[in-house]
Write a structure and sequence with these properties.
The protein has 429 residues and is mainly alpha-helical. It has one domain: Orthogonal Bundle (Ammonium transporter fold). The protein is 68% helix and 1% strand. It is built from 15 helices and two strands. Strands 1-2 form a two-stranded antiparallel ribbon. The protein is globular.
């Protein structure tokens, strides 16, 4: 039997596992695919999702902002962002050792995949995070202010917090659970969107004038792309083609489905009908909430996380818009911010070392371990939220001074950003 196995091994060298310091072809192929999926989430997924939610006169401005931010973030990530996030540095920020990919060649590895691929995979996260924020100030910010704010925010907020969690920084050293970006992506983007909505003030007519989505077909199309792309977002964060990636994809799907049905059920009970807009918003809430926990929970935990996301994010949306009268135009904070907070907290409860069909409820690791992990999770939530809020506020004030004001004037807002900012129309009917 031993001789037979040796013969098969020699005849099929591609079956050999890569050892430390060697390229793993299977892992590389999976992260290549995941990178494409995550970029697909922004272009065209998020662009279409957001584009359909705004009024007809602003659809091109949203699409343009997504494309422009994707381009700007990519260049900044190459120049200095990647180095600030993943350079050795200290506990709070990386150094400049990887500026412009200094020292990185085709042969350079990060683990057992090319470092250029790791950099590109992380770049897609750096692309979508500031793009998410535009939903908070949609339909009223100058294009020049959008670009300047997004670029500065990427370097001053996203890169440092990425380093804290994933780049060897202090939260990572504490052992915080954030598998794919509950803190790094969703809490930061949601908090920044809320601060931006408050600083800019509401759109003209809010909250008395209905501001309905102009094309829900476009929104649902984008939502479907987000759902599929999220498999690369969460599954790719395993950085390997293995069981962790497979489980992350499974729990991602379960949470999205549960969030969809929960949000729809609440609307159905309350209004007698389930809306399409509610269903896709619940889906995004389920996806965002499972993101930090995706690599740490099983399907049972994912089901509870998705149901919690659909319910809590729904009521957060109602409270922020109808009670606080904050015009977070596309509900970025109640969906992504609250979802990120909720998912990061629940990761500490439902995480388990042994995952079965309905395991992953925290108790598998013991009460003491669970309580300690919850403390770490709360530290991650509080520090990232506070840092993001303060720095975002300062950046908005600075950008406002540099651009002669953050928002367009009232007349231009009534006309719509498509014409006044880009001299184009999304529709000619």
């Amino acid at each position: 039997m031993h001789k037979l196995l040796t013969f098969l091994f020699l005849c099929c060298p591609t079956l050999a596992f890569a050892s430390d310091g060697e390229l793993n072809g299977a892992n590389t192929a999976w992260i290549l695919a995941s990178t494409a999926l995550v970029l697909f989430m922004t272009l065209p997924g998020l662009a279409l999702f957001y584009g359909g939610l705004v009024r007809k006169k602003n659809v091109l401005s949203i699409l343009m902002q997504c494309f422009a931010i994707a381009s700007l973030s990519s260049i900044l990530w190459l120049l200095v962002g990647y180095s600030l996030a993943f350079g050795e540095g200290n506990a709070f920020i990386g150094d400049f050792s990887k500026v412009f990919m200094m020292g990185v060649t085709k042969e350079s590895l990060s683990g057992d995949i090319p470092e250029s691929l790791f950099m590109m995979f992380q770049m897609t996260f750096a692309v979508i995070t500031p793009a998410l924020i535009i939903g908070g100030f949609a339909e009223r910010m100058k294009f020049s202010a959008v670009l300047l704010f997004s670029g500065l925010w990427l370097l001053a907020v996203y890169a440092p917090i990425t380093h804290w969690v994933w780049g060897g920084g202090w939260l990572g050293q504490m052992g915080v659970y954030d598998f794919a970006g509950g803190i790094v992506v969703h809490i930061t983007a949601g908090t920044a969107a809320l601060v931006a909505a408050i600083v800019l003030g509401p759109r003209k007519g809010f909250p008395k004038t209905p501001m309905l989505p102009h094309n829900l077909t476009m929104t649902v199309t984008g939502a479907g792309m987000l759902w599929v792309g999220w498999f690369g977002f969460n599954g790719g964060s395993a950085l390997a083609a293995n069981g962790d990636a497979a489980m992350a994809i499974l729990v991602t799907h379960i949470s999205a489905a549960a969030g969809t049905l929960t949000w729809a059920a609440i609307e159905w009970k309350k209004f007698g009908k389930a809306s399409v807009l509610g269903a896709v918003t619940g889906m995004v809430a389920g996806l965002g909430t499972i993101t930090p926990a995706a690599g740490f929970v099983g399907p049972g935990g994912a089901l509870i996380i998705g149901i919690s996301a659909g319910a809590i994010c729904y009521y957060a949306t109602v409270y922020i818009k109808q009670k606080l009268h904050i015009d977070d135009s596309l509900d970025v904070f109640p969906v992504h911010g609250v979802g990120g907070i909720l998912g990061t907290f629940l990761a500490g409860i439902f995480s388990a070392t042994t995952i079965g069909v309905f395991s992953g409820f925290g108790f598998a690791d013991g009460i003491t371990t669970m309580v300690g992990q919850i403390g770490v999770q709360l530290t991650g939530i509080g520090s990232s939220l506070l840092y993001t809020a303060v720095v975002t506020y300062v950046l908005l004030k600075v950008v406002g001074l540099m651009t002669g004001g953050l928002r367009v004037d009232e007349e231009k807002e009534v006309t719509g950003l498509d014409l006044v900012e880009h001299d184009e129309k999304g529709y000619h009917i």
